[in-house]
Amino acid sequence: MSGRSVPVSPAAVGVREGKAGVGVWPRRLLNAGGYIALALALALLASLLTVAATNMLGYNSYVIYSGSMQPAVKVGSLLVSRPVDVNDLRVGDVITYRSPGNHTMLTHRIVDMRQEDGEWVFQTKGDANPGPDPQEVILHGQVTKMVFDIPYLGYVVDFARSIQGVVLLLLVPAAGLMVIQAQKIWKARPSRGVQ
């Protein structure tokens, strides 16, 4: 062997110039992870903004937890409804009301209605239930009537309203931004090159 040295390019030894000792894949993984985390947080935020916007426009939104209205309204759907006068309701309308028996909120279809002593009496039924609800319901004034539903968005909204969702809405974007900023700092540091 002679005492002569042969220059070797950084690419020949697997090192990119200016990034000594750090491979391409870890940076790509960090980059992708930051953007994915940011995208997930933005999706959660968008779902909450959807709910807030519908409420500001006079609509109500509900997360559907039971399968009583399937297949028309799936479990986990976000139901958007608007208040209507009880006199404007018709058989076939899907309404959300407080159950007279246990005072829970129900979303069921009107299958029969009649006026009795000047009051509207409604018979409701979940589409998936074999028979009508056991108790008729008397409704006055405004009742919320379904306008549309967004399948599965209710799961996202429900999660975003939870403590874990709120933490995720705060921490994930912050972590994503930190990863992106760390990459920018890493790329901007002075080149050390291979000697």
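The above is record 1. Record 2 follows with the same two-line structure.
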Amino acid sequence: MKGVLRYPEPPRERYFTEKELALILDAIDSLRSRRAVLAFHMLCETGARSGEVMNAHEGQFDGLDDRLIWTVASTGTKTARPIARALSPELANRLDTWKPLSLGLQPEDNDPQWLFPKYRNPREPIDSLYTGWGVIKKRANLRHTDRTHDLRHTVATMLLGRGRTAGACRRLLGPLYPAHDAPLCSPRHRRSDRTEGHDERRDPKNSLWGKSRTTFA
């Protein structure tokens, strides 16, 4: 009704169950596009925003000991702080397989060298995962209202369940909606990290998946 003020609605929260995540992963692997398969695996494992994945480029990936680290600079995050995420060996292998194909799609002088360049205009990164997500939702029998952003909520919840602190989750994911941040601020999760100077990039707990893609180690 016009002229009537509406009460503000709290942000909607949705967390996928382990059964739903297994179906989502099966649906991802069934996609025809290898580019989409890698992009959605990055969303599922890291809890990154879709914009961070779509704008990923060659200069953001570096090795640390035996881990591959994906660092999104402060200019590419909403928090204005760099976010470093350790990738699982399986995801790192997927990246290594895709990179030569990605680099072959774009001019050598492209700066930066996008991980997911557009096919028709390879000087630009992709700007949508809508089509692939629609296929995944249908094959995994998800709700029509489910979003890629709900994967972020799910990753945050699972990291907390594995013993990570609220501060560590924020450093790995950036801030979520205030409604989701509320449990992160509870006394249970306000404790400091166990070790002073703890390097989260080296911590295997910060890689969500275990040896099996349906085992949340």
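The chain has a mean pLDDT of 80.
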